[in-house]
Design brief:
Elements: E1 3-8, H1 13-22, E2 28-30, H2 40-49, E3 52-55, H3 59-68, E4 75-78, E5 90-91, H4 105-111, E6 114-116, H5 120-134, E7 145-151, H6 156-164, E8 171-173, H7 183-188, E9 197-203, E10 209-216, H8 226-236, E11 243-245, H9 248-252, E12 268-274, E13 280-287, H10 291-305
Parallel strand pairs: 1-2, 1-3, 3-4, 4-6, 5-6, 7-9, 11-12
Antiparallel strand pairs: 7-10, 8-9, 10-13, 12-13
Helix pairs in contact: 1-10, 4-10
Length: 315
């Protein structure tokens, strides 16, 4: 059986990456509008004719597109931030909330008609912290800080053009108002009750990211060890295809982490750095902001929603 897919906003960075992952597959047929992609009626027809729609649009445009869909069977994946904390939408992080003795996120995605694709920074942060909150190692009201750096492709067309013109600084901190749009998503889906303190930055390279959470283990209730933190993460993601936890022996041998280390993949690797006898740890997620942080996750969600091999078209 061939499923029809319409990517609304395929000319953007995420849309292009998704199309590249889908167009070679024989089990999918893309609905392409060509020069008609900006015509409202052509889009409306495509939105209602497809088996599944992937929205790669700004928030308000995504909401307008959803309002145009009248066919109840159409399944929608939205890559914007418009619905990431909307309880009527399923959050599209398949590996989240597993091993809980109840329906996991993967099963929720598979049965959903409306899925919100996670943000790239939140994917790394939630992957690190949600298991620790569920396990009780990090209290829900704990003041958590997350530092992160991404390639400039995550900033949209204007930032890409600026950096590729060869004039930008090598590193730039931003989100200095502490009102970044990812904060509600990061807080809600980790189970935290206190807003996280998010300190993002962009580097002068195209894609790839590191998301880091420093923890004073000695200040946490029970003073959990580095090994205890690592064990929770390792057990949470045991057997997962796209999320892995580096061993403590591997992290001890590392002298640094390359943010481009998983580029072109849908994989995420989690690291727990620290002195096993000490009271501090640095938790670091490595992923491609255009892979597991965007287009890869969208394809993974699409596969789940259409009851296909979850890893089809992904590496």
């Amino acid at each position: 059986m061939t499923h029809t897919i319409f990517i609304d906003g395929e000319a953007g960075t995420t849309g292009l990456e998704i199309r590249e992952r889908l167009e070679a597959r024989s089990d999918l047929e893309l609905i392409l509008l060509g020069d008609r992609r900006r015509e409202v009626e052509a889009r409306r027809e495509a939105l209602n004719a497809a088996d599944a729609v992937i929205l790669c649009l700004p928030d308000e445009a995504a909401k307008e597109a959803v309002a145009m869909i009248e066919t109840p069977e159409v399944r929608v994946i939205d890559a914007s931030t418009a619905y990431r904390v909307d309880p009527a939408w399923t959050y599209g992080f398949a590996e989240m909330a597993q091993n809980l003795g109840q329906m996991g996120q993967r099963e929720r995605i598979a049965s959903a008609t409306r899925v919100s694709n996670p943000g790239c920074y939140p994917t790394g942060f939630i992957g690190l912290i949600a298991p620790l909150v569920r396990a009780g190692l990090v209290p829900a009201d704990w003041p958590v800080t997350v530092n992160a750096v991404s390639g400039y492709s995550g900033g949209g067309k204007a930032m890409i053009a600026e950096f590729e013109a060869g004039t930008p600084t090598p590193f730039r901190a931003y989100g200095l108002s502490l009102k970044h749009k990812h904060v509600p998503e990061m807080t809600r889906h980790t189970g935290l009750s206190r807003d996280v303190l998010f300190a993002p930055a962009v580097g002068n390279y195209r894609q790839g990211m590191l998301v880091e959470v420093p923890l004073h283990l000695s200040a946490l209730p029970g003073s959990p060890s580095v090994a205890a933190v690592h064990d929770v993460l390792a057990q949470t993601y045991d057997g997962e295809r796209f999320v892995e936890v580096a061993s403590l022996s591997a992290t001890e041998a590392m002298s640094g982490l390359d943010p481009e280390g998983l580029n072109g993949t849908n994989r995420m690797r989690l690291h727990v750095f620290g002195d096993r006898s000490g009271g501090q740890a640095r938790l670091v997620a490595l992923l491609d902001n255009l892979g597991k942080g965007a287009s890869g996750a969208a394809v993974q969600n699409l596969n789940l929603m259409l009851a296909l091999d979850e890893g089809a078209g992904l590496s």
